[in-house]
Amino acid sequence: MRILFITYKVDESDSLVGFVVGWLNALAAHASRVEVICLASGPAQLQPNVRVHSLGTQPGAGKPAQALAFYRVALGLKVDVVFCQFSPEFVMAIAPLAKLRRWPVALWYTHRHAGLALRIATRLADRVLTASPESFRLRTPKLRVIGHGISTTRFAPSAVPALPGARRLVLAVGRIAPVKNYELLIAAAQRVTAVHADVDFVVAGGAHAPGMQAYLGQLQALAAASALGSRFQFIGPLPYAAVPGLYQSAAVAANLCGTGGMDKAVLEGFSCGLPTVVRNTTFAGLLAEDAPALLAADATADDVALLLLGVLQQPAAARQALGARLRSRVVAGYGEQALAEKLFASLKELCA
Fold first, then answer.
1. 234, 220 contact by CB (below 8 A)
2. I need a labelling partner for 69 at 20 to 30 A (CA). Which of 9, 210, 335, 338 fits?
3. Are 115 and 137 in contact (CB under 8 A)?
4. Rounded distance, CA 9 to CA 55, Å?
5. Distance from the first to the final alpha carbon of the chain
6. Structure pTM?
7. What is the Cα gyration radius of the chain?
């Protein structure tokens, strides 16, 4: 089967979408060829049967120029099925040609927002794929839930134990946006640091969207006003290759988004054996018997602080055992290979 894979960017160093390279390689193990159209590209170690066609543009570039470059590439391809990752606009762009060439189209979408573009794309697509039932808010018989695809070899526990007496790190990984509830984390940090003098908080993520730089400034001012000083830092986005080491250096993580899609950052942390405090009840099944220690839906700052302290105060052996249980569940159900098998099966079904 020859697959046309349409995505934003193919670049293994990119802090947001570096994982796409792993998806492509895992999918390539099942397909005869994977043709990729992307807006931009960078360094990427890809399988020989993956070919990248970069339009050489960024999302903010002129739409007419993007469209012309897109159709120039797409018209020259021989494929059997189309997979559009992330964006409903990709489906709308390829739909006329797909209809003409009789290519079935699948859309991957994992976001709370369900606007007009998504409604149109859902009608145009033959299949909609998502990570969890909460990750796609429209009702459609086209929907299939196939989970996420985490590189469990890249995101793995550190082989080097933490040094005795080292400062402990509470980590949050994710873009700067109100949905991440960093105000709540700052309030919880005040309570945690009042109990433990050896704990620092770090937020790793970029302020990419319009207006988010100003919002980041507000968060930094709030942390400063909370007398946290250097104990609460926003370090910006990291290259994708550096993220596993950050997870490995932490004692516990926090992801305080409300219930919605299954945030990939939580799964990456779990894959590294990192216990993560969450508010998103989508993770209840994955947490299983460990939910009371890590899950607090609609939590207050006091609730979050208590859960973080609970993990921090565990003996090292107990915390490692908790991390090992979390990792084993991710490896079993959310690894790249598992996702690629489900994705390929779904695309093959469309071609039948």
1. yes
2. 210
3. no
4. 10
5. 11
6. 0.88
7. 21
